[in-house]
Every structure is written in structure tokens, then in C-alpha cells.
Amino acid sequence: MRKSLLLLVLLLGAAFTAQAQKYALVDMEYILGNIPAYEQANQKIEAASKKWQAEVEKVAGEAKQLYTDYQKRAESLSQAERQKREESIIAKEKSVAELRKKYFGPEGEMYKLRDSLMQPIEDQIYETVKAIATRAGYAMVIDRSSAQSILFASPSIDISDEVLTQMGYNN
After folding, report:
1. CA pair distance 125, 139, nearest whole angstrom
2. According to the model, what pLDDT value does residue 19 have?
3. Contact 139, 21 (CB under 8 A)
4. Which residues, 6 or more positions from 122, have their beta carbon under 8 angstroms from its beta carbon?
5. What range defines the domain where residue 130 resides?
6. How far apart are CA 94 and CA 52, in angstroms?
7. Taking the CB of residue 129, how many other CB atoms lie within 10 A of it?
8. Alpha-carbon dihedral sign for residues 7, 8, 13, 17
9. Are 52 and 103 in contact (CB under 8 A)?
């Protein structure tokens, strides 16, 4: 009797836990490609990047020119003058490195700009996906564009168009 009761409890427990989980896919590249604000943000980032890169290259060119001039005249310069020019070249090269770090470093202007322009868009997408998943009872929503191990997925579980529609973008 006890074994039968235990077996019945185990079978009921297994039945409840074996319920099918619902999954959905989104394609972030597709979603972002259909949001005009994302393209505008990318254009702003690219323009800023070109501007900052030109500034870095200008200072790097100045450092290179100082070095070239130094090499041409090194033999005719006094020891004190050579020392002074070497220090000037080193200082200019340091300023190039500092500019690169300021603009393109891990906490640089590029990171800050990208974060300020992209984060609101990404947050809106996340909140929309979360709302859809909660309403539809999805256990998991996977980004198809970054999940490299997905070989095939049925288009019927892709909710990318639904995300865009709920965000107010017609595709």
C-alpha cells in the first residue's frame, strides 16, 4: 500500500513538472534594423567616432613630424637640445595615447555616447519582450541573432514582429 501511494505521488509530481515549457525567439538585428532611432543613433556615433579619430590622427601626425625632424637634425644638435626634443616627442606621443584613451578607452567618450544613445532603445526592447513573454507565458525568450548554436527554429515561435508592433513600429 505504501509503495503504491509513493508511486502515485511520484507520478503526479512528474506529471506536473513535465508540462511543456513555452519558448520564443527574437531577432535583435531585425528589430534594431526596423527602429529609425537606432539608425540615427548609429549615425551620431559614427560621426563622433570620425571626428575623434581625426583629432587623434592629427596629434599622431604631429608626433611623427617631430620625430622625423629630430632624426634629420639629431647629429647637428647639442646634447641638451637633443634631450629637449626627445622629451617633446615623448610628451606628444603620451598625448596621443591619452586622447585615444579619452575617446576610445573602456570608459571613454565613445562608450558614454553609445551608452546614452543605445541604452534607452535596448531598455524599451527588453521591457516589450518581457511584457510579451509574461502575457504569453513564455519560459524563455532567446535572441536568435546572438545564439550561434541554434541551427533551426520554427518561424512560428519568432516574436520579433510582435515586439516591433507593440513598440509602435510597423514593419
Report:
1. 18
2. 55
3. yes
4. none
5. 18-167
6. 16
7. 23
8. positive
9. yes
Residue 25 backbone phi and psi in degrees, to 5: -120, 150
CA neighbor of 113 nearest in space, from 55, 105, 167: 105
Task: Please give the single-letter amino acid code of residue 136.
Answer: A
Q: Is residue 103 part of a domain?
A: yes
Quickly list H helices, the chain: 2-17, 28-33, 36-73, 79-104, 109-136, 160-167
76-109 pLDDT per residue, tens: 888 899 899 899 999 999 999 999 999 999 999 9
In this prediction, residue 41 carries a pLDDT of: 95
Residue 111: how many other CB atoms lie within 10 Å: 13
Q: Per the structure block, which three cell numbers stand in for 70?
A: 629630430
Q: How far apart are CA 54 and CA 33, in angstroms?
A: 28
Q: Is residue 38 part of a domain?
A: yes
Q: What is the pLDDT of residues 5-15, one digit of tens each?
A: 554 455 555 55
The predicted structure's pLDDT at residue 144: 81
Is 122 among the domain residues?
A: yes
Query: For the chain, first and last CA: distance in Å?
Result: 62
Pull the grid cell for residue 96: 596621443
Structurally, the chain folds into a number of domains equal to 1
Q: What residues in the chain have per-residue pLDDT under 70?
A: 1-20, 147, 171
